[in-house]
Each structure stands twice: as structure tokens, then as C-alpha cells.
Write a structure and sequence with these properties.
Chain lengths: 230, 73
């Protein structure tokens, strides 16, 4: 392991430790917060449901930028970043969909509603899952990266629809707390922002680890080609 | 959005049936909150474990291929 990689590992472990400390502290603080008057304890799921959604949307935006940069430069580092951040974003979006479904079961009395927000979020998840399936279907690396980048750019069209669906259409999903006319007590807002920071940091750590694996996969492919040629 | 620590007013005007119903609702709320958080964390933890296992497999394969290439040379 070279010196640069050693420092990288050190920073990665440090970030991971910071994430765990923030999350443990947040779980303790959230458990002690009073219940929301109308929804009760289930409302506290917002501290997880919304940060994972925002993190997934940020991941989609990073994947878009990385895909565009790959198409411009043909540099495989951007392709590695795109696939890494897409996979991580998919895990966060899955967590968002499931926490939302459980929240909906209590508040709406049903697990799922085919309204614009929920449907567009599910379509977003399917589009990015298709991105990963597409990558497995194409053998040739340059062709695979090009097709995947184009698909990633196409998939991003759904992201603004997910975000603004609750503004554009009448949905069963409520308006957002921060820009939909609602309000959060200041101490709740602080906890929310800390949790948001923890989720973003967690996604960064996961993405860096995944990028390294993508680079290792490329090294493995190169070694296999050398072995075949010998 | 209003917060209340203890629903004192409710306790003063509610019938025993109302209190039982409210207690059941609160219990259900906590149950579903715990389900939600457990499932969401499980997804992230499973993904991390999946990444760790993939990383180990990659390292193993790279090491064995490098050893094989050294032998051939």
C-alpha cells in the first residue's frame, strides 16, 4: 500500500467514525424528543426518511455530472464515480421508499398510494436499477461506460419530477416541511440537519469505497486480459 | 406543527375507552417507527456487508491472478 492510499484509508476511517458518532448521538436525541401532536411517535421517522431521500437525489446529480464528464473526456475515472454513486444512491432511495411506505401505513392507512411523488420515486429507483443491469449486460468496457452514461443522463430527467411532483400535482404525499409552508421547532431542525450531514457523509464514505472497488475490478479485468494473451 | 410532551388536556376530558384507544395508537406508532428504522438500517447494513464481501473477493482474485502471472513468467 503506498503512502497516498494509506492517507486515503486514514481519512476514510476517520469519516466513518464521525458518521457513527453523529448517528449514535442523533438516535439518542431523537428518542428523547417529544411526540408530534397529530401524528405521534411515527413522525420521528422524518429524521431518517427525508435525509436519505435528499442524499439519494444528490447522488443522482453527482451521477449525472460524472456521466456527462465521461462522455466529454472518455476518462474511466468518471465512469467509476458514476456507477459507485448510482449504486449508493439506489440503496438510500430504497431506504426512503420503505420508510415512506411504513409511515404511510400509519398515517394514510395504506402501504402505498399511486400518487405523483411515490410513483415518480419508484420509477426513479427502477431507472437507476436498470442502469446497473445495463452495465452487466454489456461486455466491452468503453461501450458499457458510454451506454451507461447516456442511460444515467436520461434517468436524471425523473429526478426534478420526483422533487417538484408535490408542487406540480395534488398528491397524497404532504408538502415539504421546509419549503411547503410548514415549520420545524429550532431544536428539531438542528437534529434534522445533523442527521442530514451524517447521511451525506455516510454516502461519501460508501461511494469512495465503491469507487476503489471499481478501480480494482478494472485492474482485475486488465490482469485477466494479460493472462489470456500469455 | 404543535408539540406536546404530556397530553394533560386529553387525560382530563377523555373516557377510559378513549385512553385505552389512545394508548393502543401510541403503541402501534412506536411499533411501526421501530419497523421503519430497522428495515431502513438493515438495507444500508446489508449493502455495506455486500460491499465488504465484494472487496474481499476482488482482492483475492487479483492476488491469485498476479501469482499465476508471476509463475508463468
Amino acid at each position: 500500500m503506498n503512502e497516498k492510499s494509506g492517507w486515503g484509508d486514514y481519512i476514510l476511517y476517520l469519516l466513518g467514525a464521525v458518521v457513527i458518532i453523529i448517528l449514535v448521538r442523533d438516535i439518542y436525541v431523537i428518542a428523547r424528543l417529544p411526540q408530534e401532536a397529530q401524528q405521534g411517535a411515527i413522525f420521528k421517522i422524518i429524521f431518517f426518511h427525508v435525509p436519505v431521500a435528499i442524499t439519494a437525489m444528490i447522488a443522482a446529480a453527482v451521477a449525472l455530472v460524472a456521466s456527462v464528464l465521461f462522455l466529454i473526456t472518455r476518462n474511466f475515472r468518471y465512469d467509476a464515480l458514476a456507477v459507485a454513486v448510482t449504486e449508493v444512491g439506489l440503496a438510500f432511495l430504497a431506504a426512503n421508499l420503505i420508510t415512506g411506505s411504513i409511515w404511510g401505513r400509519i398515517i394514510w392507512g395504506q402501504w402505498w398510494a399511486w400518487d405523483a411523488r411515490l410513483t415518480s420515486a419508484l420509477v426513479c429507483w427502477i431507472l437507476y436499477a436498470a442502469y446497473l443491469m445495463l452495465r452487466r449486460a454489456v461486455e466491452e468496457p468503453t461501450q458499457r461506460a458510454t451506454f451507461a452514461a447516456v442511460w444515467s443522463i436520461f434517468s436524471f430527467i425523473d429526478v426534478p419530477i420526483v422533487i417538484f411532483s408535490i408542487k406540480w400535482w395534488r398528491t397524497q404525499h404532504p408538502q415539504p416541511v421546509f419549503w411547503g409552508g410548514g415549520s420545524f421547532p429550532p431544536d428539531w431542525k438542528a437534529v434534522f440537519l445533523w442527521n442530514m450531514l451524517a447521511m451525506v457523509l455516510l454516502a461519501i464514505v460508501m461511494t469512495v469505497v465503491r469507487v476503489r472497488q471499481e478501480n480494482a475490478q478494472r485492474e482485475l479485468d486488465s490482469l485477466r486480459r494479460t493472462a489470456h494473451a500469455m | 406543527m404543535h408539540l406536546q410532551s404530556i397530553p394533560l388536556l386529553f387525560a382530563q376530558i377523555a373516557t377510559p375507552d378513549d385512553i385505552v384507544r389512545e394508548a393502543a395508537r401510541l403503541q402501534r406508532n412506536y411499533e411501526f417507527l421501530s419497523y421503519g428504522l430497522t428495515v431502513a438500517w438493515a438495507i444500508l447494513v446489508i449493502y455495506v456487508l455486500f460491499m465488504v464481501s465484494r472487496g474481499r473477493k476482488l482482492k483475492r482474485e487479483i492476488a491469485s491472478l498476479k501469482a499465476m502471472l508471476e509463475d508463468r513468467r
